[in-house]
C-alpha cells in the first residue's frame, strides 16, 4: 500500500493532493467517505462544546459520588436523544475508595497544623464550592501515626539508596516525596515507600515542577498556585488494573471478590498529598544532611534530608469498600458489518471538577456523538458498528474500562477493529497522537484532512509541535525538510495510565490515543475547572471542537474502510527498533552477526536512558546467573523473524493497494482479509502473561511501574534483571509470534493473488 497517499479531501487544503486516495478505500468509496467526513466535520460547534463542558464541570464528581452517577444518567439520556442505539448503563460492584477525614501536624521542632485544603481564587467562583474535598489519595489505608519525617526526593528506589548512604533509614518513619520529572506514578512511589518499611507517605507539588518557577500561576496564568493539591490514586494497577478484588474477571453484580488483604494491587500504606503551602513548613524545619543539588526545589531555602528530631503526626480515615461504578454504553449499529466494532471511550469521573481531566474529553465526546447521531438520521450509517463508552473509576485504577473489557474480552477479540481513547481533549494547542505502529500511517494521513485553529492543517501543526519538542529535547531523529519525518510523528511507545490499557494489554486490540496539551499546572486539583479552561486551556473551545472532528473522522475511517488500513511493514520496522533499543542498552544482547557500533544505533523516542527500572519483579534465577559478563542473549533469530514479518507486510501492502485501486471488492474476500488483519494484534498476546504480571499479556507493549512505556516487556525486564533463562524464553515467545503473524500475512496475500 502506498503510504504517501493523502485523502481526497486534502485537496481543499493541499492542492498537490487532489488525486490522492484514502488508505483502505477504493477510489469510489474514498469519494463517498470524503463527503461523509465533510458533513460530519460541519456539525460540532464551539458553543455546544462550551455548553457541554459547563455541565460536566459544574460540580465535583469523583468516582462513586452521587453527582458522577447523575452524569452517567445524563449521558444515557443525551445519547438516546441524539439517536444512538442500544444505550445502556452497566453496573460494576467494585472495591472503591473515599475519604472520611484527615489531619497532619508537625509536633517538633516547631508546631504546624496543615491546612489540607485549597484556598479560593479571585474570579474563580467554582473554587469556592463547599463540595470540594480536602487532601486525599485514593486507596490509601486508614491509620494514625506519629513518627520522624524524612525527605526522600521523588520517592524512587535510587532516592532511598542515597538516604542509606547518608545513614538514614525510613523504616517506621513518614517520608515526604514530590511529584517530579522524570515523571513516576504516585502509586510506584507508594509501593517503594511501603517496601522500604515507611509508616506513611506524603507527596507534594514543588513549584519547581508546576508552579511559579514555570510562569504565572492561576488565576493569572496556567501554573499551579500555592494551595494546589494534586489528588490521585496510589493503586498498584501496574500489577493488575481494575478492581483489586476481582483480578482478571469482571466485577459484575454477584461476582466473587477476594479479600482486600490478598489483593496485590491494593496498597498497604497510608498516603496523602500536600500543597507546597503545607509542605514548606515541614521542609523548612528539617535538619540532618543537606540534600543533593538535584533534590533541591524552588521554595527558597536549602532542603535537608531530616533527622530523628522532627516529629509529625498524621491521621487518615478512609471509607474503602464495595460500591457501584457505572459504565454508559451506546452504539450506532453498522449497516453492512454490524459484528465488526470500532470502540471509543472517555472516562467521566474526576478528582474534583475535571476541567481538563477528563471533562474536556467528555465534552468533545458528547459533540462527536451528536454529529454521529445527525449523520445516522440523514441516512449515513457507518459500515461497521461504533461502540461508545463513558467509563467510570478510571482515576481509581482504570476500573470501569477494565471491568468492561474483562467482561466482553472474548467478544472483543472476535469483533473489535480498534479502540480510540481520549482522556483529556485539551489543555493547550499541541497535538500528540499515539497509536500502535500498524495504525500510525493512517493517523498521520487523517491529520492532513483537518484544519487546526492556527490556520494550518492539523498535520502541519503536529509536525511543528514535534519539531519543537525534538529541538528542546535534543533528541536525534530522521528529519525531512519540514522538520520531522512522518514516520516519527505518531508516538508508538505506549505505556499505561488511561483506559486504553485493558484493550491493548489484555484483550489484544490495536489502540489510538488523541490529545492536545499545553502548559498545565493544576492537574487533579480543584483549580482544574471551568475558569481555568476558559482562560488558559482552550478559550473559545476551538480545540475541543477539533478533537470532536478528529475523533469522529478517525473512527469513521476505521468503520467505513473497504480493507482495514493496517500497515504491518511499518509495525515490523517499529518492532525492529524496539529490539535495537534493547540491544543498544544491554551489552549482553547480541543482535547481528556483525554488530554495529553502539553509538550508531539510534533510539528515537525511547527515552530509555532516563527510564526508571522496575525493581520488584520476581526473578527465580537471578542469584545464580546474575553476572551479565558471563551471559549473552542471542536475538539474531528474532531479528531474522522481524525481517520475514516486514517482507510479508510489504508484499501485503502492495497487493492490498492494487486490489483497492482496481475497484469494487468481493465481499467474501474483504471479510477474509479484514478478519485476518484483525487477528494480527491478538497474536501478540501471550496467554500466560509477562513474568510476574500475568494480567498484562501483550509481548510488544507494556508499562513500567511508573506508567512509562515499556517495549517487549517480558524480555526487557528479564534482561534488566539478568535473568537469562527467562530472557531466552521470552525471546522464543517473540520469535514464535512473529512467525505466526508472518504466516498469517502470507496467507492473506495468497488469498488476494488467487482472486
Q: How is the topology of this model organized?
A:
Elements: H1 27-41, H2 46-57, H3 66-82, E1 85-108, E2 112-113, E3 137-138, E4 143-151, H4 157-165, E5 174-179, H5 186-195, E6 200-205, H6 207-210, E7 232-233, E8 270-274, H7 276-284, E9 311-332, E10 337-347, H8 359-377, E11 384-391, H9 394-397, H10 399-407, H11 409-415, E12 416-421, E13 430-435, H12 440-447, H13 458-473, H14 501-507, E14 511-517, H15 530-537, H16 542-560, H17 568-585, E15 589-590, H18 622-625, E16 633-634, H19 636-661, H20 667-682, E17 701-703, E18 709-711, H21 713-720, H22 724-753
Parallel strand pairs: 3-7, 4-5, 5-6, 6-8, 10-11, 10-12, 12-14, 15-16
Antiparallel strand pairs: 1-2, 1-9, 4-9, 9-11, 13-14, 17-18
Describe the structure.
By secondary structure, the protein is α/β, with parallel strands linked by helices. The protein has 22 helices and 18 strands. The chain has helices at residues 27-41, 46-57, 66-82, 157-165, 186-195, 207-210, 276-284, 359-377, 394-397, 399-407, 409-415, 440-447, 458-473, 501-507, 530-537, 542-560, 568-585, 622-625, 636-661, 667-682, 713-720, 724-753; strands at residues 85-108, 112-113, 137-138, 143-151, 174-179, 200-205, 232-233, 270-274, 311-332, 337-347, 384-391, 416-421, 430-435, 511-517, 589-590, 633-634, 701-703, 709-711. The strands form four sheets. Strands 1, 2, 4, 5, 6, 8, 9, 10, 11, 12, 13 and 14 form a twelve-stranded mixed sheet that branches. It has a two-stranded parallel sheet with strand order 3-7. Strands 15-16 form a two-stranded parallel sheet. The model is unreliable at 1-20, 475-481, 594-610 and 623-628 (pLDDT under 50).
Amino acid at each position: 500500500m502506498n503510504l504517501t497517499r493523502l485523502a481526497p479531501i486534502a485537496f481543499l487544503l493541499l492542492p498537490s493532493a487532489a488525486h490522492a486516495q484514502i488508505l483502505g478505500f477504493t477510489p469510489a468509496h474514498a469519494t463517498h467517505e470524503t463527503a461523509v467526513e465533510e458533513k460530519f466535520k460541519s456539525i460540532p460547534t464551539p458553543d455546544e462544546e462550551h455548553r457541554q463542558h459547563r455541565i460536566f464541570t459544574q460540580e465535583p464528581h469523583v468516582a462513586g459520588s452521587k453527582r458522577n452517577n447523575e452524569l452517567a444518567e445524563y449521558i444515557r439520556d443525551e445519547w438516546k436523544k441524539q439517536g444512538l442505539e442500544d444505550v445502556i448503563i452497566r453496573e460494576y460492584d467494585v472495591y472503591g475508595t473515599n475519604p472520611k477525614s484527615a489531619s497532619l501536624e508537625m509536633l517538633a521542632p516547631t508546631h504546624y497544623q496543615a491546612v489540607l485544603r485549597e484556598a479560593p481564587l479571585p474570579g474563580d467562583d467554582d473554587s469556592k464550592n463547599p463540595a470540594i474535598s480536602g487532601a486525599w489519595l485514593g486507596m490509601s489505608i486508614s491509620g494514625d501515626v506519629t513518627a520522624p519525617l524524612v525527605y526522600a526526593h521523588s520517592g524512587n528506589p535510587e532516592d532511598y539508596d542515597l538516604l542509606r548512604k547518608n545513614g538514614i533509614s525510613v523504616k517506621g518513619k513518614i517520608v515526604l516525596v514530590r511529584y517530579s520529572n522524570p515523571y513516576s506514578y504516585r502509586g510506584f512511589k507508594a509501593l517503594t515507600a511501603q517496601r522500604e518499611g515507611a509508616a506513611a507517605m506524603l507527596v507534594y507539588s514543588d513549584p519547581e515542577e508546576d508552579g511559579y518557577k514555570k510562569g504565572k500561576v492561576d488565576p493569572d496564568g496556567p501554573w499551579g498556585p500555592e494551595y494546589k493539591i494534586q489528588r490521585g490514586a496510589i493503586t498498584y494497577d501496574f500489577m493488575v488494573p481494575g478492581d483489586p478484588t476481582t483480578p482478571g474477571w469482571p466485577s459484575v453484580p454477584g461476582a466473587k471478590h477476594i479479600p482486600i488483604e490478598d489483593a496485590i494491587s491494593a496498597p498497604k500504606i497510608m498516603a496523602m498529598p500536600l500543597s507546597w503551602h503545607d509542605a514548606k513548613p515541614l521542609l523548612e524545619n528539617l535538619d540532618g544532611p543537606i540534600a543533593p543539588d538535584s533534590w533541591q526545589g524552588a521554595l527558597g531555602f536549602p532542603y535537608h534530608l531530616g533527622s530523628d528530631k522532627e516529629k509529625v503526626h498524621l491521621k487518615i480515615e478512609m471509607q474503602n469498600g464495595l460500591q457501584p461504578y457505572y459504565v454508559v454504553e451506546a452504539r450506532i449499529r453498522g449497516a453492512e458489518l454490524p459484528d465488526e466494532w470500532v470502540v471509543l471511550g472517555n472516562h467521566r469521573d474526576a478528582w474534583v471538577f475535571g476541567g481538563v481531566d477528563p471533562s474536556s474529553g467528555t465534552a468533545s465526546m458528547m459533540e462527536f456523538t451528536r454529529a454521529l447521531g445527525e449523520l445516522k438520521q440523514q441516512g449515513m450509517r457507518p459500515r461497521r458498528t461504533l461502540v461508545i463508552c463513558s467509563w467510570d473509576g478510571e482515576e481509581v485504577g482504570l476500573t470501569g474500562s477494565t471491568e468492561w473489557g474483562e467482561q466482553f474480552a472474548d467478544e472483543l477479540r472476535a469483533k473489535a477493529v480498534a479502540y480510540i481513547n481520549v482522556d483529556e481533549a485539551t489543555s493547550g494547542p499541541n497535538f500528540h497522537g499515539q497509536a500502535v505502529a500498524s495504525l500510525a500511517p493512517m493517523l498521520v494521513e487523517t491529520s492532513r484532512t483537518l484544519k487546526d485553529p492556527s490556520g494550518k492543517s492539523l498535520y502541519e501543526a503536529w509536525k511543528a509541535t514535534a519539531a519543537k519538542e525534538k529541538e528542546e529535547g535534543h533528541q536525534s531523529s530522521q528529519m525531512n525538510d519540514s522538520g520531522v519525518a512522518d514516520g516519527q510523528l505518531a508516538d508508538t511507545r505506549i505505556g499505561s495510565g488511561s483506559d486504553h490499557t485493558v484493550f491493548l494489554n489484555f484483550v489484544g486490540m490495536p489502540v489510538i490515543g488523541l490529545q492536545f496539551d499545553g502548559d498545565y499546572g493544576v492537574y487533579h486539583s480543584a483549580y482544574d475547572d471551568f475558569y481555568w479552561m476558559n482562560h488558559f486551556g482552550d478559550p473559545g473551545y476551538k480545540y475541543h471542537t477539533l478533537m470532536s472532528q478528529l475523533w469522529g473522522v478517525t473512527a469513521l475511517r476505521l468503520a467505513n474502510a473497504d480493507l482495514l488500513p493496517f500497515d504491518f511493514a511499518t509495525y515490523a520496522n517499529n518492532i525492529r527498533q524496539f529490539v535495537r533499543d534493547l540491544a543498544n542498552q544491554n551489552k549482553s544482547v547480541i543482535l547481528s552477526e556483525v554488530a554495529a557500533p553502539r553509538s550508531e544505533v539510534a533510539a528515537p523516542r525511547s527515552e530509555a536512558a532516563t527510564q526508571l527500572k522496575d525493581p520488584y519483579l520476581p526473578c527465580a534465577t537471578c542469584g545464580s546467573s546474575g553476572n551479565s559478563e558471563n551471559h549473552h542473549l542471542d536475538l539474531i533469530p528474532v531479528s531474522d523473524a522481524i525481517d520475514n514479518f516486514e517482507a510479508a507486510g510489504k508484499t501485503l501492502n502492495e497487493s492490498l493497494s492494487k486490489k483497492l485501486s482496481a475497484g469494487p471488492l468481493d465481499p467474501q474476500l474483504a471479510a477474509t482479509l479484514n478478519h485476518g488483519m484483525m487477528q494480527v494484534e491478538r497474536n501478540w498476546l501471550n496467554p500466560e502473561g509477562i513474568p510476574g504480571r500475568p494480567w498484562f499479556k501483550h509481548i510488544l507493549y507494556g508499562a513500567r511501574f511508573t506508567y512509562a512505556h515499556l517495549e517487549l516487556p517480558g524480555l526487557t525486564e528479564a534482561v534488566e534483571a539478568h535473568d537469562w533463562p527467562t530472557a531466552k524464553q521470552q525471546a522464543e515467545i517473540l520469535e514464535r509470534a512473529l512467525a505466526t503473524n508472518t504466516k498469517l500475512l502470507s496467507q492473506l496475500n495468497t488469498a488476494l493473488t488467487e482472486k
